[in-house]
Amino acid sequence: MLTWMEELFGVKKPIIAMCHLQPLPGDPYYDAEGGMDKVVECARKDLHALQDGGVDGVMFSNEFSLPYLTKVETVTVAAMANVIGELKKEIKIPYGVNCLWDPVASLDLAVAVGAKFIREIISGVYASDFGLWNTNVGATVRHKMAIGAGDVKMLYNIVPEAAKYLADRNIADIARSTEFNNRPDALCVSGLTAGSETDTQVLSIVKGAVKQTPILCNTGCNKDNIVRQLSVADGAVCATTFKYDGVFENAVDQSRVKEFMDVVKEFRKTL
Q1: Which domains does the chain have, with CATH numbers?
Q2: Is the CA virtual torsion 101, 209, 144, 132 positive or negative?
Q3: Does this model's pTM top 0.85?
Q4: Does 32 have pLDDT greater than 90?
Q5: Contacts of residue 166, Cβ cutoff 8 Å, sequence gap at least 6
Q6: pLDDT at 146 over 90
Q7: How many angstroms separate the Cα of 48 from the Cα of each of 42, 60, 257?
Q8: How many Cα neighbours within 13 Å face the side chain of 194?
């Protein structure tokens, strides 16, 4: 039987690429002179470089809205919906959204733009660079059903970037209880920040702890480690490695995308 990821993306061990949006209205580093036209054009160039480079899916996020909010302002959701709406006819692969770091806002955005999945911090309590990071997974899932987002897949990040689980629990127990209590569609395992390599041993621990939930390597994949990571994980979310010189702030370099995906496609032949 095919997994939901194989059905959605059409391949085993899919690569979901991030399309990082430039700072948006209300963000500290928003380019008011360039305005939303600049945000849309930057996103358009990155989207086409990712698609033409061969990735399996794309996820739009307000990555440059630093520092992040845990309750996103309305203008951010509206601006993201505007960008995705402008690009929607040009999107050729399955797409999701990530409104950092607010799962309710992400679900609202997903419904508005027809996204198939979200990635968020959906459960747990964390001490983070953004303060005390609390969640209410029960309320979030009920909101999902209330707005007609029942088919939207939810990717739970259980190793949040720049944060630590507040309770003294090991990652295997967190994975097991998250799967049992919350029925996530996938679990994401991350490094410290965007672009930081995910510990393969932690991936293995999480993979061994759950019964049926797909595991995604969420940060730090590159052409040199992706085979090792996909030997454990069921897929990966990738961004920084696709950018010019592998630098987080840069635009997407299609040649780097293709080089990475060529490695992935060769690996899939062994599955």
Answers
A1: 14-268 (3.20.20.390)
A2: negative
A3: yes
A4: yes
A5: 124, 125, 126, 127, 132
A6: yes
A7: 10, 13, 11
A8: 19
